[in-house]
Amino acid sequence: MLCIIFINFINTSEKNPLYVLSLTKNMDQLTYDGNAIYDGDRVIGTISMSKSNIEINGSVSIILKRDKAGYSILEDNLPMGRIEKNLKLTYQGKIYETERRELYDFVTGKTNKLDIFSTGSLSATIERENSKLVVKSDLQFEKTPFIVYLAIFSRYRLPAYGTRRRAQALPSPYKEAYYALIIAFFAAFVFLSIYNYNTLVYTFVLLILIIGQFTVYFLGRRKLSEK
Questions:
Q1: What whole-number distance in Å separates Cα of residue 169 and Cα of residue 103?
Q2: Chain-centre distance of CA 32, in angstroms?
Q3: Which of 83, 142, 153, 206 could form a cystine bridge with 89, CB 3.0-4.6 A?
Q4: Which tens digits make up the pLDDT trace of 58-105?
């Protein structure tokens, strides 16, 4: 009888460390929705962001501490790894990464799926579904690296400014310019975030790139209407 009560306590207590360990080893799906991360229908953490940190708090406690090369990963205030500016992630000595072209396609909305690899093999896939981000895998996997990825990609639960459909509607050279500005926006966003530039400079640069995108788009549409 005592054994049954103990097992039930492990399965139902979010704050119990054995519950957290069981999540780590047996989870096959995570979801980001409405600023929270779910395991099934259970909230395991909510995301908050500041100029220097990204924090995930709940039954898990993870802090991404910004530095010049990316973020260091603290779990329960202990250093566990880091994520570089190219989004290569190291956790307890294990490396996770994605293909650069697929990363660009995911951020800009060309595709809604992003594969994450570890030691050359597919570890899990992040998919964009109805304004949510879902981590899926046929394998059991460590949850922390993918909670980190969900926190980083939470900005992209919707595609970045300028979708592929918009760009395809434009004639050359407007289409090429539009794509170039999307790339420039993403590069500037990552660079300025990592190197912690003055907020005014950060806002000004991104605003100019956004205005540039819409200017190119409307000039391209006007060119089409003249034909």
A1: 23
A2: 10
A3: 83
A4: 999 999 999 888 899 999 999 999 999 889 999 999 999 999 889 888
pLDDT tens-digit readout, 146-163? 999 999 998 888 765 444
Angle (CA) 86-29-81 rounded to 5° is 35
Structure tokens, 62: 């993870």
Q: Is residue 1 part of a domain?
A: no
| End-to-end Cα, the chain, rounded Å | 81
Residue 146 is assigned to a structural domain of this protein: yes
Same domain, 219 and 130: no
61 and 121: one domain?
A: yes
Give the tokens for residue 55: 């924090």
**Global pTM exceeds 0.85:** no
Domain span holding position 201: 164-226
